[in-house]
Amino acid sequence: MMSLLGRTDVDAGEVFVNFNQNITSLAVATSGGYSLYSLGSVDSTLDKIYHTKSDELFLIERLFESSLVAIVSQRAPRKLKVCHFKKQSEICNYSYANTILAVKLNRERLIVCLEESLYIHNIQDMKVVHTIRDTPCNPQGLCALSSSSEHCYLAYPGSVTAGEVQIFDAINLHAKTMIPAHDTPLAALAFSPSGTEIATASERGTVIRVFSSQDGSRLFELRRGLKRCVSIVSLSFSTCAEYLVSSSNTETVHIFRLDRSATETAEGHGSKQSSDDWMGYSFFRFLSKTVTSYLPTQVTDVFSQGRAFASVTLPEAGVRRMCAITTIQKQLRLLIASQDGYLYVYSIPTVEGAECQLIKRHDLRLEDHYAMDIKGA
Question: Which of 38, 131, 238, 315 is a plausible cystine mate for 47, CB 3.0–4.6 Å?
């Protein structure tokens, strides 16, 4: 999952929040330390797994449900510490030439992102197995690591002027493909759970695209909005890979449904319809192509883009939020962790265009065992 990288967050009395790779726990760091929460019963309670007082942190990553966490403190922003939180022991630490901007983990690799380089560690012994040097300037530390061991890919910006995505095979240690995703620089990246798809958004923020991470082919194009350009903060596939959720600097969170059957249905349409139906369908496709061929590319792109399946409107804009969709106790849930210290739990509607319904709001700043439970209206 993507991290909140603003180091002023903790200074301002706000919190750093981050989900683990399979959305089973939430890490929360404040000026006084950090806590780990289980999400297994988040509809009713938020169980605190661990809490410790520590230096002010601006990065923390937990490896799935294991006891391994990677942390970076404000006091030593060039040093990575890998710890076993249950044993309260430090496994190792590494120092780098410049400030660490992001840390990513999966069961095979640990990635450290600096402004102009990426370090790839073997998760088993923490040794550096490869360094990608002289990357395009990346002051936000934008990168993504697939949680899959089978398709263990690393993605990072390939340009400072355009939205190019470099896909790197982190196991075999070679470049895999370059995807020209957007005309403007990248703002967000996220892999699907299998690692075979990657979602991208640019600094313009109006269009989100999904590509094959293996050959770079475009699979989906999703329109977040037409009215204004926004800054996309969080992109995340659902754990079932059927949805994609995005948050921005606005008050709205958008959920897109990735209908992979649509193309297959269209391709197989002829074999399932009568000749008259098929003629009508063929004529409709011919007419669509003919009409759009006379329109500017920008206009035809709008016609081909998917709209949000559902949305959430939060109390205020300008708050950075991490979003995730996962199944909790056999129910699909949208989780929104915000930098102002709240975790929102929403149900996802079955009807397209509907608003998600608030189930709970947990206060992450409380010190007791359970976070505060506030019923939704």
Answer: 38
